[in-house]
Amino acid sequence: MSLKVSNSSENNPMLPVSDPGRTHDDGDKLFKGSAMTKRGAYAAVSYMSCAVLLVMFNKAALSSYNFPSANVITLLQMVCSCCFLYVLRRWRIISFSAGEKSLISDNSTKFVPLNTLKHTLPLSGAYLLYMLVTMESVRGVNVPMYTTLRRTTVVFTMIVEFLLVQQRYSSSVIFSVGLIVFGALIAGVRDFSFDAYGYSVVFLANFTTAIYLATISRIGKTSGLNSFGLMWCNGVVCGPFLLVWTFIRGDLKMTLNFPYLFSPGFIVVLLFSCILAFFLNYCIFLNTTLNSAVTQTICGNLKDLFTIGLGWVIFGGLPFDFWNIIGQLLGFTGSGLYAYYKLMGK
Protein backbone atom coordinates (compact mmCIF):
# COMPACT_ATOMS: atom_id res chain seq x y z
CA MET A 1 0.00 0.00 0.00
CA SER A 2 1.50 3.31 -1.02
CA LEU A 3 1.88 6.02 1.57
CA LYS A 4 2.46 8.74 -1.01
CA VAL A 5 0.27 11.80 -0.39
CA SER A 6 -2.14 12.63 -3.17
CA ASN A 7 -3.66 15.99 -4.01
CA SER A 8 -7.03 14.50 -4.92
CA SER A 9 -9.83 15.80 -2.75
CA GLU A 10 -11.55 12.42 -2.96
CA ASN A 11 -8.77 10.51 -1.22
CA ASN A 12 -9.22 9.23 2.32
CA PRO A 13 -6.28 9.06 4.78
CA MET A 14 -3.58 6.77 3.43
CA LEU A 15 -3.99 4.25 6.24
CA PRO A 16 -7.40 2.66 6.88
CA VAL A 17 -9.35 4.16 9.78
CA SER A 18 -12.68 3.45 11.35
CA ASP A 19 -15.60 5.36 9.92
CA PRO A 20 -18.50 5.03 12.35
CA GLY A 21 -20.83 7.13 10.30
CA ARG A 22 -20.48 5.22 7.08
CA THR A 23 -23.26 2.98 5.77
CA HIS A 24 -22.36 -0.10 3.78
CA ASP A 25 -24.12 -1.27 0.64
CA ASP A 26 -24.04 -4.83 -0.68
CA GLY A 27 -20.81 -4.12 -2.54
CA ASP A 28 -19.02 -3.62 0.76
CA LYS A 29 -20.11 -6.99 2.14
CA LEU A 30 -17.66 -9.87 2.40
CA PHE A 31 -20.11 -11.83 0.25
CA LYS A 32 -23.80 -11.54 -0.57
CA GLY A 33 -25.93 -11.92 2.54
CA SER A 34 -22.98 -11.55 4.92
CA ALA A 35 -23.30 -9.36 8.00
CA MET A 36 -19.57 -8.54 7.87
CA THR A 37 -17.90 -6.11 5.47
CA LYS A 38 -14.61 -6.68 3.68
CA ARG A 39 -12.93 -4.02 5.82
CA GLY A 40 -14.36 -5.67 8.91
CA ALA A 41 -12.89 -9.03 7.86
CA TYR A 42 -9.48 -7.48 7.21
CA ALA A 43 -9.56 -5.80 10.63
CA ALA A 44 -10.45 -9.07 12.34
CA VAL A 45 -7.65 -11.04 10.66
CA SER A 46 -5.10 -8.28 11.35
CA TYR A 47 -6.08 -8.20 15.02
CA MET A 48 -5.68 -11.95 15.42
CA SER A 49 -2.23 -11.93 13.82
CA CYS A 50 -0.93 -9.11 16.02
CA ALA A 51 -2.47 -10.56 19.19
CA VAL A 52 -0.76 -13.94 18.82
CA LEU A 53 2.66 -12.40 18.35
CA LEU A 54 2.25 -9.83 21.14
CA VAL A 55 1.35 -12.47 23.76
CA MET A 56 4.49 -14.39 22.82
CA PHE A 57 6.79 -11.38 23.17
CA ASN A 58 5.17 -10.20 26.42
CA LYS A 59 5.47 -13.69 27.87
CA ALA A 60 9.11 -13.86 26.79
CA ALA A 61 9.92 -10.58 28.57
CA LEU A 62 8.03 -11.40 31.77
CA SER A 63 8.82 -15.10 32.09
CA SER A 64 11.86 -16.04 30.01
CA TYR A 65 13.82 -12.95 31.07
CA ASN A 66 11.96 -12.57 34.41
CA PHE A 67 11.49 -8.85 33.87
CA PRO A 68 10.07 -7.56 37.21
CA SER A 69 7.53 -4.98 36.02
CA ALA A 70 4.69 -5.45 33.56
CA ASN A 71 3.72 -1.81 34.16
CA VAL A 72 7.00 -0.55 32.70
CA ILE A 73 6.40 -2.57 29.53
CA THR A 74 2.94 -1.05 29.31
CA LEU A 75 4.42 2.44 29.76
CA LEU A 76 7.02 1.83 27.04
CA GLN A 77 4.32 0.57 24.69
CA MET A 78 2.23 3.68 25.35
CA VAL A 79 5.17 6.06 24.82
CA CYS A 80 6.13 4.35 21.56
CA SER A 81 2.52 4.44 20.38
CA CYS A 82 2.30 8.21 20.97
CA CYS A 83 5.61 8.75 19.18
CA PHE A 84 4.45 6.73 16.16
CA LEU A 85 1.15 8.63 16.03
CA TYR A 86 2.84 12.01 16.36
CA VAL A 87 5.26 11.33 13.51
CA LEU A 88 2.61 9.83 11.22
CA ARG A 89 0.23 12.73 11.89
CA ARG A 90 2.94 15.34 11.33
CA TRP A 91 3.82 13.70 8.04
CA ARG A 92 0.09 13.70 7.21
CA ILE A 93 0.12 9.95 6.54
CA ILE A 94 -2.83 9.61 8.92
CA SER A 95 -5.52 11.83 10.40
CA PHE A 96 -7.18 11.74 13.81
CA SER A 97 -10.71 12.79 12.87
CA ALA A 98 -13.24 10.67 11.03
CA GLY A 99 -13.63 12.06 7.52
CA GLU A 100 -10.69 14.47 7.87
CA LYS A 101 -8.63 14.80 4.68
CA SER A 102 -5.00 13.75 4.83
CA LEU A 103 -3.79 17.04 3.38
CA ILE A 104 -5.41 19.26 5.98
CA SER A 105 -2.98 21.92 7.17
CA ASP A 106 -2.26 21.74 10.90
CA ASN A 107 0.93 23.24 12.25
CA SER A 108 -0.08 23.07 15.92
CA THR A 109 0.78 20.27 18.34
CA LYS A 110 -2.82 20.14 19.54
CA PHE A 111 -4.22 17.45 17.32
CA VAL A 112 -7.43 16.87 19.29
CA PRO A 113 -9.72 19.64 20.70
CA LEU A 114 -9.95 19.82 24.50
CA ASN A 115 -13.69 19.11 24.50
CA THR A 116 -13.14 15.97 22.44
CA LEU A 117 -10.36 14.91 24.80
CA LYS A 118 -12.77 15.28 27.74
CA HIS A 119 -15.37 13.24 25.89
CA THR A 120 -12.92 10.33 25.61
CA LEU A 121 -11.91 10.33 29.32
CA PRO A 122 -14.08 7.28 30.18
CA LEU A 123 -12.41 5.38 27.35
CA SER A 124 -8.93 6.40 28.55
CA GLY A 125 -9.72 5.30 32.09
CA ALA A 126 -11.02 1.94 30.87
CA TYR A 127 -7.94 1.55 28.66
CA LEU A 128 -5.51 2.21 31.53
CA LEU A 129 -7.22 -0.34 33.76
CA TYR A 130 -7.39 -2.84 30.91
CA MET A 131 -3.69 -2.51 30.10
CA LEU A 132 -2.48 -2.79 33.70
CA VAL A 133 -4.58 -5.82 34.58
CA THR A 134 -4.04 -7.62 31.28
CA MET A 135 -0.25 -7.32 31.44
CA GLU A 136 -0.22 -8.66 35.02
CA SER A 137 -2.50 -11.55 34.07
CA VAL A 138 0.06 -12.88 31.56
CA ARG A 139 2.64 -13.44 34.30
CA GLY A 140 0.74 -15.68 36.71
CA VAL A 141 -0.69 -18.30 34.33
CA ASN A 142 0.91 -20.46 31.65
CA VAL A 143 0.10 -19.43 28.08
CA PRO A 144 -2.31 -22.29 27.20
CA MET A 145 -4.38 -21.81 30.37
CA TYR A 146 -4.20 -18.03 30.00
CA THR A 147 -5.83 -18.22 26.59
CA THR A 148 -8.36 -20.77 27.85
CA LEU A 149 -9.51 -18.55 30.73
CA ARG A 150 -9.49 -15.44 28.58
CA ARG A 151 -11.99 -17.13 26.29
CA THR A 152 -14.71 -16.44 28.88
CA THR A 153 -14.32 -12.70 28.21
CA VAL A 154 -17.15 -12.93 25.70
CA VAL A 155 -19.67 -13.51 28.50
CA PHE A 156 -18.50 -10.40 30.35
CA THR A 157 -18.66 -8.42 27.10
CA MET A 158 -22.23 -9.49 26.37
CA ILE A 159 -23.33 -8.58 29.90
CA VAL A 160 -21.67 -5.15 29.76
CA GLU A 161 -23.16 -4.40 26.31
CA PHE A 162 -26.61 -5.38 27.56
CA LEU A 163 -26.27 -3.10 30.60
CA LEU A 164 -24.93 -0.16 28.59
CA VAL A 165 -26.95 -0.25 25.36
CA GLN A 166 -29.55 -3.00 25.95
CA GLN A 167 -27.89 -5.08 23.24
CA ARG A 168 -29.65 -8.42 22.74
CA TYR A 169 -28.38 -11.49 20.92
CA SER A 170 -29.96 -14.29 18.93
CA SER A 171 -30.29 -17.81 20.31
CA SER A 172 -27.63 -18.97 17.81
CA VAL A 173 -25.08 -16.51 19.21
CA ILE A 174 -25.96 -17.40 22.81
CA PHE A 175 -25.52 -21.12 22.03
CA SER A 176 -22.09 -20.57 20.47
CA VAL A 177 -20.96 -18.46 23.45
CA GLY A 178 -22.24 -21.10 25.88
CA LEU A 179 -20.18 -23.71 24.02
CA ILE A 180 -17.08 -21.52 24.36
CA VAL A 181 -17.52 -21.17 28.11
CA PHE A 182 -18.29 -24.86 28.59
CA GLY A 183 -15.14 -25.75 26.66
CA ALA A 184 -13.07 -23.40 28.82
CA LEU A 185 -14.38 -25.06 31.99
CA ILE A 186 -13.62 -28.54 30.65
CA ALA A 187 -10.11 -27.49 29.58
CA GLY A 188 -9.32 -25.86 32.92
CA VAL A 189 -10.58 -28.60 35.20
CA ARG A 190 -7.34 -30.60 34.85
CA ASP A 191 -4.88 -27.72 35.09
CA PHE A 192 -2.23 -29.06 37.46
CA SER A 193 -0.55 -25.65 37.75
CA PHE A 194 -3.61 -24.03 39.37
CA ASP A 195 -2.80 -20.65 40.92
CA ALA A 196 -5.67 -18.89 42.71
CA TYR A 197 -4.09 -15.44 42.38
CA GLY A 198 -3.23 -15.95 38.71
CA TYR A 199 -6.73 -17.17 37.89
CA SER A 200 -8.30 -14.24 39.78
CA VAL A 201 -6.21 -11.71 37.86
CA VAL A 202 -7.17 -13.31 34.53
CA PHE A 203 -10.89 -13.11 35.35
CA LEU A 204 -10.40 -9.48 36.42
CA ALA A 205 -8.70 -8.91 33.06
CA ASN A 206 -11.76 -10.40 31.36
CA PHE A 207 -14.01 -7.92 33.14
CA THR A 208 -11.82 -4.89 32.35
CA THR A 209 -11.54 -6.03 28.72
CA ALA A 210 -15.32 -6.19 28.44
CA ILE A 211 -15.69 -2.66 29.82
CA TYR A 212 -12.96 -1.37 27.50
CA LEU A 213 -14.46 -2.91 24.34
CA ALA A 214 -17.97 -1.75 25.19
CA THR A 215 -16.63 1.77 25.83
CA ILE A 216 -14.86 1.75 22.45
CA SER A 217 -18.09 0.72 20.79
CA ARG A 218 -19.96 3.64 22.36
CA ILE A 219 -17.44 6.50 22.44
CA GLY A 220 -15.73 5.47 19.20
CA LYS A 221 -18.93 6.20 17.30
CA THR A 222 -19.76 9.52 19.00
CA SER A 223 -16.40 11.25 19.48
CA GLY A 224 -15.78 12.20 15.82
CA LEU A 225 -12.35 10.53 16.05
CA ASN A 226 -11.06 7.57 14.09
CA SER A 227 -8.96 4.73 15.48
CA PHE A 228 -5.75 6.76 15.48
CA GLY A 229 -7.40 9.71 17.21
CA LEU A 230 -8.76 7.48 19.98
CA MET A 231 -5.34 5.89 20.45
CA TRP A 232 -3.77 9.36 20.71
CA CYS A 233 -6.24 10.43 23.41
CA ASN A 234 -5.56 7.25 25.37
CA GLY A 235 -1.82 7.86 25.28
CA VAL A 236 -2.01 11.56 26.17
CA VAL A 237 -4.34 10.95 29.12
CA CYS A 238 -3.01 7.64 30.44
CA GLY A 239 0.74 8.12 29.89
CA PRO A 240 1.36 10.61 32.76
CA PHE A 241 -0.76 8.57 35.20
CA LEU A 242 1.11 5.39 34.35
CA LEU A 243 4.49 7.12 34.71
CA VAL A 244 3.60 8.35 38.21
CA TRP A 245 2.24 4.93 39.15
CA THR A 246 5.42 3.10 38.10
CA PHE A 247 7.52 5.64 40.04
CA ILE A 248 5.45 5.26 43.23
CA ARG A 249 5.55 1.45 43.06
CA GLY A 250 9.30 1.46 42.52
CA ASP A 251 9.02 -0.20 39.13
CA LEU A 252 11.35 2.31 37.48
CA LYS A 253 14.04 1.62 40.06
CA MET A 254 13.68 -2.14 39.59
CA THR A 255 13.97 -1.65 35.85
CA LEU A 256 17.23 0.28 36.17
CA ASN A 257 18.63 -2.55 38.32
CA PHE A 258 17.43 -5.29 35.95
CA PRO A 259 20.51 -7.37 34.97
CA TYR A 260 19.40 -7.95 31.37
CA LEU A 261 18.33 -4.36 30.71
CA PHE A 262 20.93 -3.81 27.99
CA SER A 263 20.98 -7.37 26.73
CA PRO A 264 20.51 -7.38 22.92
CA GLY A 265 17.98 -10.19 23.14
CA PHE A 266 15.88 -8.43 25.76
CA ILE A 267 15.99 -5.13 23.86
CA VAL A 268 14.77 -6.88 20.70
CA VAL A 269 11.91 -8.47 22.66
CA LEU A 270 10.89 -5.08 24.09
CA LEU A 271 11.13 -3.40 20.69
CA PHE A 272 8.86 -5.94 19.01
CA SER A 273 6.49 -5.81 21.98
CA CYS A 274 6.11 -2.03 21.58
CA ILE A 275 5.65 -2.18 17.81
CA LEU A 276 3.11 -4.99 18.03
CA ALA A 277 1.22 -3.22 20.83
CA PHE A 278 0.79 -0.19 18.56
CA PHE A 279 -0.65 -2.24 15.71
CA LEU A 280 -2.73 -4.35 18.09
CA ASN A 281 -4.38 -1.30 19.67
CA TYR A 282 -5.14 0.08 16.23
CA CYS A 283 -6.67 -3.23 15.13
CA ILE A 284 -8.76 -3.43 18.33
CA PHE A 285 -10.27 0.00 17.66
CA LEU A 286 -10.81 -0.78 13.99
CA ASN A 287 -12.33 -4.21 14.57
CA THR A 288 -14.61 -3.03 17.38
CA THR A 289 -15.96 -0.01 15.50
CA LEU A 290 -16.33 -1.78 12.16
CA ASN A 291 -17.83 -4.94 13.65
CA SER A 292 -18.80 -5.06 17.36
CA ALA A 293 -17.38 -5.57 20.84
CA VAL A 294 -18.58 -9.18 20.90
CA THR A 295 -17.04 -9.88 17.48
CA GLN A 296 -13.76 -8.44 18.74
CA THR A 297 -13.90 -10.82 21.70
CA ILE A 298 -14.67 -13.82 19.48
CA CYS A 299 -11.71 -12.94 17.27
CA GLY A 300 -9.60 -13.17 20.41
CA ASN A 301 -10.94 -16.68 20.92
CA LEU A 302 -10.25 -17.78 17.35
CA LYS A 303 -6.61 -16.67 17.46
CA ASP A 304 -6.12 -18.73 20.61
CA LEU A 305 -5.55 -21.87 18.53
CA PHE A 306 -2.21 -20.45 17.38
CA THR A 307 -1.41 -18.85 20.74
CA ILE A 308 -1.93 -22.12 22.62
CA GLY A 309 0.14 -24.11 20.13
CA LEU A 310 3.05 -21.66 20.12
CA GLY A 311 2.86 -21.10 23.89
CA TRP A 312 2.95 -24.81 24.62
CA VAL A 313 5.88 -25.41 22.26
CA ILE A 314 7.95 -22.35 23.34
CA PHE A 315 7.09 -21.93 27.03
CA GLY A 316 5.48 -25.22 28.06
CA GLY A 317 3.73 -25.31 31.44
CA LEU A 318 0.60 -27.38 30.74
CA PRO A 319 0.34 -31.19 30.56
CA PHE A 320 -2.18 -31.66 27.76
CA ASP A 321 -4.51 -34.55 28.57
CA PHE A 322 -7.74 -35.89 27.12
CA TRP A 323 -10.11 -33.45 28.89
CA ASN A 324 -7.96 -30.46 28.05
CA ILE A 325 -8.02 -31.36 24.37
CA ILE A 326 -11.81 -31.87 24.47
CA GLY A 327 -12.28 -28.50 26.17
CA GLN A 328 -10.08 -26.72 23.64
CA LEU A 329 -11.97 -28.28 20.74
CA LEU A 330 -15.33 -27.27 22.22
CA GLY A 331 -14.11 -23.70 22.65
CA PHE A 332 -12.82 -23.47 19.11
CA THR A 333 -16.04 -25.01 17.80
CA GLY A 334 -18.07 -22.36 19.63
CA SER A 335 -15.86 -19.59 18.24
CA GLY A 336 -16.17 -21.02 14.75
CA LEU A 337 -19.97 -21.18 15.06
CA TYR A 338 -20.12 -17.55 16.12
CA ALA A 339 -17.95 -16.54 13.17
CA TYR A 340 -20.27 -18.50 10.87
CA TYR A 341 -23.40 -16.84 12.31
CA LYS A 342 -21.76 -13.43 11.98
CA LEU A 343 -20.80 -14.02 8.36
CA MET A 344 -24.24 -15.36 7.49
CA GLY A 345 -26.03 -12.55 9.31
CA LYS A 346 -27.82 -14.80 11.82
Automatic annotation (TrEMBL):
Residues 50-338 form the Sugar phosphate transporter domain. It holds the Pfam family TPT. Its main location: membrane. It is a multi-pass membrane protein. This is Sugar phosphate transporter domain-containing protein. Keywords: Membrane, Transmembrane, Transmembrane helix. Residues 1-12 have a biased composition (Polar residues). One of its GO terms (cellular component) is membrane. The keyword Calcium does not apply. Residues 1-29 are annotated as: Disordered. InterPro entries: Sugar_P_trans_dom, TPT_transporter. The chain crosses the membrane at residues 40-57, 69-88, 173-190, 196-216, 228-248, 260-286, 298-316. It is found in: Membrane. It comes from Arachis hypogaea.
